Amino acid sequence: MPIMSNNQIQELSQKILAEKNELTKLKNALQPKQLDDFTFKNHKGGNTKLSEMFGSHKYLVVIHNMGQSCNYCTMWANGFEGVYKHFDDKAGFVLINHDTIESQKEFADKQGWTFPIYSASNNSFNKDLGFVMGDNSLYPGISTLRKKSDNIIELLSQEPFGPGDNFCSVWHIYDLLPEKFSY
Fold this sequence. Notes:
Elements: H1 6-28, E1 33-35, E2 39-41, E3 47-49, H2 50-53, E4 59-64, H3 71-81, E5 91-97, H4 101-111, E6 117-119, H5 125-128, E7 141-147, E8 153-160, H6 169-176
Parallel strand pairs: 4-5, 5-6
Antiparallel strand pairs: 1-8, 2-3, 4-7, 7-8
């Protein structure tokens, strides 16, 4: 394979950015889907409604996580620890998986996570949003939600996580190294 010149790299990077901007426009044009106000288990031993996770925000970023058994999900969540506080003036931010509250607490403490984590082991949230595979195993990803003034909750956009995605900087750093790393 011939080595690309800096001009070729720049042109391709601009083309990819333009395509990404077009993809963002298409996602933002999707019709929102109304959601139920699901109830989740929280770390205080009680329950929290989805509507409460927004706090004072209009928007909520939900990370669908497979739990501590998934090394990739741990890597994504480690990266979100440094990012989620930047959402504070725009949106709430939560991580949701099916692990028990006790194991979530222990693992979050070990990892140094400070973002809110909830368990959906008692509801169909992940399944209803399309993050459960045919064999009932979870699939990782992200959903953005909006709470309207009448407390109606809407799903705005979502995207699965996977090797090479835009949500984990590690993939892109691997790509800059001369040896090919397997994801």
